[in-house]
Specification:
By secondary structure, the chain is an all-alpha fold. Helices cover about 75% and strands about 0% of the residues.
Length: about 90
């Protein structure tokens, strides 16, 4: 928002500004995914624990394991978008 006020319009935003807006979206996905993984079980369990699960606990573990994958994808996208933004910033400085 401050960048838009400085430039006077959304149309004048540069590519690194748009990338950082998308970083905000991916970071929100990271936070939502972390909350879902913490509320549900995941595939990070010690050996022998999964055999004693009920049907509901098994379904929660499958659901949590799917969110672990989503979490990892959001984290990778977030990291690489930040790296791209830094590369653009360094290019503009030199």
């Amino acid at each position: 928002a401050s960048r838009c006020l400085l430039l006077g319009s959304y149309k004048k935003l540069q590519i690194d500004d748009w990338i950082m807006l998308f970083v905000c979206v991916t970071f929100t996905g990271v936070i939502v995914s972390v909350n879902q993984v913490s509320q549900n079980l995941s595939n990070y369990l010690p050996p022998g624990v999964a055999e004693s699960f009920t049907k509901e606990e098994h379904d929660n573990a499958v659901y949590g394991s799917k969110f672990v994958l989503i979490l990892e994808e959001f984290m990778l996208a977030n990291t690489w978008l930040c790296k791209a933004c830094l590369l653009i910033l360094y290019y503009q400085m030199t």
